[in-house]
Amino acid sequence: MKKKNRIAVIGGGVSGMTAAVTAAEQGADVLLLEQKEMTGKKILVTGNGRCNYTNRVQTPQCYRSDDPEFPWKVMQKFPAEKILELFQEMGIYPKDRNGYIYPNSDQASSVAETLQEELERTGVEVHTGVRCLEIRREKNGFKICAEGKSFQADRVILCAGSKAAPVTGSDGSGYDIAKKMGHSLIPVLPALVQLRCSGKFFKNIAGVRVNGKIILYTDGAEAASDTGELQLAAYGLSGIPVFQVSRYASRGLYEGKKVEAMIDFMPELSTEKMLDFLRKRARNRPEKTAEHFLTGLFHKKLSGLWLKFARIPKEKRVGTLTEEELRHLTWLIKEFKVQVTGTNSFEQAQICCGGVDTRQIHADTMESRLVPGLYFAGEIVDVDGICGGYNISFAVASGVLAGKSAATKE
Prior knowledge:
It comes from [Ruminococcus] lactaris CC59_002D. InterPro entries: BaiN-like (IPR004792), BaiN-like_dom_sf (IPR023166), FAD/NAD-bd_sf (IPR036188), RsdA/BaiN/AoA(So)-like_dom (IPR055178), RsdA/BaiN/AoA(So)_Rossmann (IPR057661). The protein is α+β, with helices and mostly antiparallel strands. It has two domains: 6-189 and 354-408, FAD/NAD(P)-binding domain (3-Layer(bba) Sandwich), CATH 3.50.50; 194-343, no CATH class. The protein has helices spanning 14-25, 69-77, 80-90, 108-121, 173-180, 202-205, 240-254, 271-284, 300-309, 323-334, 390-408, and strands spanning 6-10, 29-34, 54-55, 63-64, 94-97, 100-103, 125-128, 132-138, 141-146, 149-153, 155-158, 185-191, 195-197, 209-218, 221-232, 236-238, 259-264, 336-343, 351-356, 374-376, 384-385. The strands form six sheets. Strands 13-16-15-14-17-18 form a six-stranded antiparallel barrel. The chain has a five-stranded parallel beta sheet with strand order 7-2-1-11-20, with helices on one face. A hairpin with a 2-residue loop joins strand 5 and strand 6 (100-103). Helix 1 (14-25) runs parallel beside helix 11 and helix 8 (271-284) crosses helix 10 (323-334). The two termini are 14 Å apart. The mean pLDDT is 97.
């Protein structure tokens, strides 16, 4: 009788649990090691507690990496349709919000509990409270060294997460394990995170939400842009569009570049149309004071700030605004540029950019090119998705590939 493959999965997040269940369903003897007191802890905070686990819109641009073709190769092997099928087979019925897929229960705990039930159903041996320190290659497999104990395995799948949200168990310890096995790391930095900006005026506009466009520049060159609801904070900028461009800010700052963010507070109008709009607005109500010129158009905190920057007295009549003053206001509305000095910490970041260099991993199996029998899945590798369920999509897809490959390899 053929001996079962003994597979150790390090990390009990989405990718780890998916890899473990997949390997067990292929007939492997699976051991899952999680350093927190429970598996799936990070799932509970995803999607504001609702867990947006995939998205019907899938393009290569939804995933970022220093090896840009790698994540898309993985996603083509196990696309969103298969993720939907897999979750439905497990009992998670999808709720579709404009292509963003959530569990019908709107509870992230549903996803965590379902994956935990799948571990039990497939007979995965789960050990929690186990902090893994090192993987050693031995003649007949691997030895996983943990605090106070060790485990043997024929194959190992490393799914230890990134440094983002360390309270959930993602403390970056997996990177050290990968490095000891000879793997290179792309610099690990906060992503899907808020931007800290210079300017004392931010405390005066804190709390304002506005639909706008952010364009990020590194050393004067456009790096990324996105449109949607921006949130202004005392420290700088937040909101989903900010999160979407933040990985480029992190990388630029790490590389010592000058990073700037330009905000367009009226992206639906061109600069010339915005100027013409203000001219007509001034002609329409010339008796108004400048203080009320933009009332009903922008938040008063913003209009007050722009008047101050343009050196326009609040009491000045709108009908007496000069062409130069109208152009200055237009420029502030359309091209409000601030310097980015940093990002919030790993504690506030939803994910990280960087990680294990994917050029050292086979995309079709997630097996190491350097250490046969060692596999990777999830956030530990240099792949980060945009907001919208893409990071969980990659975690599931890479977990399935790693689990199946590790279990079936001769």
